[in-house]
Structures are given as C-alpha cells and as structure tokens.
C-alpha cells in the first residue's frame, strides 16, 4: 500500500452527515493509509460503529483482494495515541477504455468496487469529511474517478468537490426481537409466503448450511443465474475467501431435494445487519419455491443471531420482477446515492446487457461466461 501524506483534521474540515452515536475526538488527528488485513484496529472500529455493514469488514476487503488483488488505498483517521476515529475502504481499479465501459468503467478509486455499500465510517461529520477529501485528493493524483457508496441510511452533506448522484434502491427487512414475531408484509403477503414455504416442504425441499466443499457445485448454479441476467460472474475463489474469512458470519444456505441442488444463497453479517449477497438457482425448479424457502430460513436465523435488519440488496430500475419479490417480504425501500469526484450520472444504472444481447449471451457456453466474468471484473 502506498503511504499517503498525513493531513490534520483542521487542514481539511468539511461537513458530512453520518450515523455516529460515538464520542467526538480529542487532540490532534491525522489521516493515513492503513492495512485492514493486518491492523486489528480496523475491525474493532467497524464492529463498534452503528452504520457499519459487512462490506466494511476486513473479511470482505480480504475477499476482494483474493479475487483481484491490487490497488489498496484504505484510509483511517487516528489520534496521536493511535486511536481510530474514522475509516474509509478504497480500492483503485484498472478500468477499461471509455467506449467499452462508460464513465464507471474507467479507472476508479472506489469504496468499494463490485460491492453494493461502502463509504466512510466516522465518529463525527468533520472526520468523515476529512476522509472524503483525502480520497478525492488520491483520486486526482491517480487520474481516477472517485466513487463512494454510502449506506443511504442518512442524508449526507458531502464536500463541495464531490457530486451526489441518485442511485438505485435497496430493500431492507426490519427484524423483530423474537422469531415468533416475524411477519412478512401484510397478512396477504405473509400468507402467500407461508404457503410457498409449506409447498416446498411438501415437495421434499430442505435447507442446510453449506461449506467450502459445496462452493463448486453451487457456483455452477450461480454462473447460470448470472448468464441469464447478463451480469459478469464472480470467480469461485472469491466465494471461498468470503466463507473462510467471515467464518460464522457468512452462510452459504442450500436448498436441495434429495441429491439435487435447487438453489443457494450467500449471506454475510456485521453486528446487527445481515446482507443477502449472492444467489444461484436452477430456473427449472422455480415452481418448488427454493428461493422463498432460503429467505424464510435466513430471516429466522438472522433473528436468532440478534440481527436487527436483513438487507435484501439493491435492484436495478429495470428489474421490476426482482423489486416485487423483495417487496412481498415486507421490505422497505431505501433510496441510495453515490458520491463522485465528477458527474457519474450519465446512464450508468444499467449494468446488465441490453435485452437483445442478453438473449444471445444466454446461449454462450458456461465456461466462456465464467472466463469473461473473471476478465471483466479484473478491470472494474
């Protein structure tokens, strides 16, 4: 990791609204690059911050590094005694020529690439502003676009050098304290989901927690799903790294009927938040409702683990079917924004292939789509 010139908070004070609930810093603060994979202070700070997500953890950062290891520029603000008061995970991507990838396919300093949420975690708005200003400075020096993905749980006032751009929405289920109180939307929706779960059970579908030994079999379903949607797939070793680094805080839940794998989903956790991260499904088995069964089980497991929210993830504006699936679970819609060092709003919401190309892509051999995903994600 390249060292970053130290800057004091007084040098860079700007306001940014964040969830804190934490004490204000005292004394002189400096911003510097640190390594979350070797500096234990990173995870201690993330674990104590109420706005942290699983994607802020060193486990996720390490999985990204295992997938395509390059460009680490993670920032922290610390006191002269070494106490952290803010962190901002950042990775520099290589980028592709503008005609191929658009503005967001260019060289980016992202928090974080191939990740739904990131952004600064800080004890005060001024410390968060310092982190964003320092990130913008690094992006300028690298000739890169700064892209920051805040959680969207609060409206932030960002440094004037950055643009705030509306993004997609994520869908969040608020979880009760006790499993018996778990309800999914209104009585009609809850009844429909309960019926789907009972139907899956009658058809002999069961759910179990997978291990790293199951990743290869599940990854084929994931590749098929990504090919169907025209989205670059993640490489298998990334999922091995997620399960290994998160330990008990990551789950690969599998829906099976006998020896047949019907679907599987990856969930990751940090504190009170569980995030629904990836899914692979045998589309010929959708009538057996394996995805309903998986989410039903995970919601109950999240309550038992003491989580307060189950984040079902963001949905592209064009994917109404997926949005309807998440709404039926009683998930509330949370609009997200992105921060950019330049205007990144020029039609960048659409990441999947256009429908005409998507039809052709679904006929491409699976090994070719897997190879293409490795190549494309290596640049983005």
Main sheet makeup: 10 strands, mixed
CATH class of the largest domain: Alpha Beta
Approximate strand percentage = 15-25%
From the N-terminal CA to the C-terminal CA, the straight-line distance is 19 Å
Reading the helices and strands in chain order gives EHEHHEEEHEEHEEHEHHEEEHEHEHH
Helix content: 25-40%
Total separate domains: 2
Count of alpha and pi helical runs: 12
What structural category characterises the helix and strand content?
Answer: alpha+beta
For the record, the CATH architecture of the largest domain stands as: 3-Layer(aba) Sandwich
CATH topological fold name of the largest domain: Aminopeptidase
Q: Give the strand tally.
A: 15
Rg value: 21 Å
Overall pLDDT metric: 86
CATH homology superfamily name of the largest domain: Gcn5-related N-acetyltransferase (GNAT)
CA-based shape = globular
